[in-house]
Design brief:
Pfam family, one: CstA
Keywords: Cell membrane, Membrane, Transmembrane, Transmembrane helix
Domain CstA N-terminal: 4-144, 151-278, 297-426
Subcellular location: Cell membrane
Structural class: mainly alpha
Family: Belongs to the peptide transporter carbon starvation (CstA) (TC 2.A.114) family.
Distance between the termini: 49 Å
CATH architecture: Orthogonal Bundle
CATH class: Mainly Alpha
Number of domains: 1
Strand content: under 5%
Radius of gyration: 21 Å
Oligomer: single chain
């Protein structure tokens, strides 16, 4: 458990040290009025307190990703915790901060508009399509996972819960953001804290430690799946996740002061990193071996692990509350995923969203399509979601790097994680069954070569701006 607390300490230190460094590079301007003030419409642009915005942001981004991903990542051993810590501090939280703050500066614009502003029209059109596809996949994943848990918990037919959750999503997507999301999500945040803290205390009391690994940072996966690049796709939420770039604009439309950005965007990602550490630690500690963890996963997936760990450590009542927390997490991200998709489509069509009829005009076809997608195999949907998620992160990181380059600021804080994640997604696409199925060595060469090409193109495109700013200084 010492290793767990050390990792948590590093995340907290990352917020105060590296987060402050990132904030200084961006340069928030508290004197500027935010879109929540200048564009208030009572629907999507609604001023809310920093505390409330932080809790909503945390719940928006913390779906099942920082639970299911770290549980699956625990199969690789303690090395998974290293990725959560360093990925979160130097990539994920940086990604979230810039996706939020650049949206604030762009009047609360969605991620395709932000990317297009800094990478060009072609990138904007690509992201318009890609972001909506990602959000639809996220919404469907975050219907199926809580529906499965609720079906197991209540012995009720799965289809009933799918329909019920979709019905709630329709409501939450079209009503003003402060009526449901702003009002109830802070309460759900308290449940999230209870669940996370309660489980780690239960683990400490149980006296369980890491399963016979010590501090072995080699690949311990029982089926010998390669660590590169799969770990960096498997653990997305909790380390770096492109889905967050679609969620940050929601809170960029509610934040009242630019100085709050580090707390809301960088800080919420650190909070999600701690949740991911808790579940990775539970996966590493509750079972006697990676084989035992894998056996439970094979019998019922990550949901079975959540149920088994929660009821064993917290008893029946505490376990049910913890499971409900895991149910609420994806639901509170699924509804905002569909809400973000509605806003992206509305921005693309230049369709005002104040009238209810125009919100329904976008929402109803979107939910019909989502229900159709939900009929596909969950494992297939999850794999496509994982790749699409990290590809979105790549685009957002390059857009942030472009902004910093044009401003003559230290763009490497975004360029380096953008390069790493570019190598990850190209290697994965070349190697994975959903991609080209090539041998890993060849796939890695393709990933590295692609990263080199993209990086050189980026540096050449923004070279005049970099030289100009350097000469001015």
């Amino acid at each position: 458990m010492i290793w767990f607390f050390l990792c948590v300490g590093l995340l907290v230190a990352g917020y105060f040290v590296y987060g402050k460094f990132i904030e200084r590079i961006f340069g928030p301007k508290p004197e500027l009025k935010t879109p929540a003030i200048t564009m208030a419409d009572g629907v999507d642009y609604v001023p809310m307190s920093d505390k409330k915005v932080y809790l909503v942001q945390l719940l928006n981004i913390a779906g099942v990703g920082p639970i299911f991903g770290p549980i699956l990542g625990a199969l690789y051993g303690p090395v998974a915790m290293l990725w959560i810590v360093f990925g979160c501090i130097f990539a994920g939280a940086v990604h979230d901060y810039f996706s939020g703050m650049l949206s604030v500066r762009a009047k609360g614009a969605s991620v395709p508009t932000v990317v297009g502003e800094h990478l060009g029209t072609a990138a904007k059109h690509f992201m318009n399509l890609f972001a909506v596809v990602l959000l639809m996949l996220v919404g469907v994943v975050f219907v199926l996972s809580p529906a499965g848990l609720l079906a197991n918990l209540t012995s009720t037919d799965l289809v009933y819960w799918i329909v019920a959750i979709f019905a709630y999503y329709i409501l939450a997507t079209i009503v003003p953001i402060d009526k449901i999301i702003g009002r109830f999500y802070p309460i759900f945040g308290a449940l999230l804290v209870f669940m996370s803290v309660g489980l780690i205390i239960g683990l400490i009391v149980s006296g369980k430690g890491f399963y016979n690994t010590g501090m072995d940072f080699s690949n311990l996966h029982p089926t010998e799946l390669p660590l590169w690049p799969l770990l960096f796709i498997t653990i997305a939420c909790g380390a770096v996740s492109g889905f967050h770039a679609t969620q940050s604009p929601l809170m960029a439309r509610c934040m009242q002061n630019e100085k709050s950005g580090r707390f809301i965007f960088y800080g919420a990602m650190i909070g999600e990193g701690i949740i991911a550490l808790i579940w990775c630690t539970l996966g590493l500690s509750f079972y006697d071996s990676t084989e035992a963890l894998n056996a439970t996963l094979a019998s019922g997936g990550p949901s079975a692990v959540v149920h088994e760990v929660s009821t064993s450590l917290l008893g029946t009542v505490g376990g049910i509350l913890a499971i409900l927390g895991v149910v609420i997490l994806p639901i509170t991200s699924g509804d905002t995923a569909f809400r973000s998709a509605r806003l992206i489509v509305a921005d693309f069509l230049n369709l005002t969203q104040k009238p209810m009829a125009k919100r329904l005009l976008i929402a109803i076809p979107m939910f019909i399509l989502g229900f159709i997608i939900s009929k596909a195999e969950f494992g297939v949907i999850w794999r496509y979601f994982g790749w699409a998620n990290q590809t979105t992160a790549v685009m957002m990181l390059w857009a942030a790097a472009a902004y910093l380059a044009k401003e003559g600021k230290l763009h490497w804080v975004c360029t380096l994680p953008a390069m790493f994640m570019t190598a990850v997604v190209f290697t994965y696409l070349a190697n994975a069954p959903i991609g080209f199925g090539l041998e890993m060595g060849v796939s890695t060469l393709i990933g590295l070569a692609s990263t080199l090409v993209v990086t050189v193109a980026f540096l050449m495109k923004f070279r005049p701006a970099l030289i100009g700013k350097a000469s001015e200084s």
